[in-house]
Amino acid sequence: MLDTIHRIETPEGVDLDLRTAGPAPRLLAWIIDLCLRGVITIGVSIPLSALGKLGGGVFLIVLFALEWLYPVIFEVLADGSTPGKRAVGLRVIRLDGTPVDWGASTLRNLLRTADFLPALFGFGLISMLYTRRFQRLGDLAAGTVVVYRRRGAARAAALPETAPRPPPLPLELDEQRAIIRFAQGAQGWSATRARELSEVAARPLQAVRDEATAATARDPVAYLLSVAAWLAGKRGDEASR
Questions:
Q1: Residues 80-117 pLDDT 10s
Q2: Does the chain have fewer CB atoms within 10 Å around its N or its C terminus?
Q3: What is the distance, to the nearest Å, from the Cα of residue 195 to the centroid of all Cα atoms in its chain?
Q4: Which residue, 94, 95, 93, 70, is CA-closest to 83?
């Protein structure tokens, strides 16, 4: 069944929903790359034409590199995107969400020959329309998928709204960062995973035998969220107690 969402669960228990790219945006990206390669080909052919047979040999090497090495190098070294894919906002990843490697990128691009058959990427288009993640034959063989880039992914997630509470003891910088990162990611985790991680992150606070320990034991997730709010600069009634 066709689906435009590719869901990935990270080792930390975070569910990532990535939008898969259909034939239209991928065709646009391919046309952009084709035009760019055409410009490079024309630009290289002019000076090489003056070198005679030597220039002809070098020109054939350039054509080979543009056809077969161009997509592989960009996909591996440029975060899964050729210039065309980057212009459209696409990238190639493995099915588990990890970056595409040399082997997978080489395989998916070598099989473009099969995707092109019988003409104008006929088999590739049929494959994309009959697979859940719009995978062409090369993607199926290499275990890859083309998705839209997550805009703003590099920005830190917002902290949940909660009453701030100061920590019961001074925390090291790494401990403060761990609590804030927990709060930023907690909204994307399951309740079971969030509680499991909160019990680990709350251990430094449990060394203090006071109300903090009791609050942590009752609901470690809520308590860490309130401490994270305080560490992030929020202040409320709890901070004045």
A1: 999 999 999 999 999 888 889 999 999 999 999 999 88
A2: N
A3: 26
A4: 70
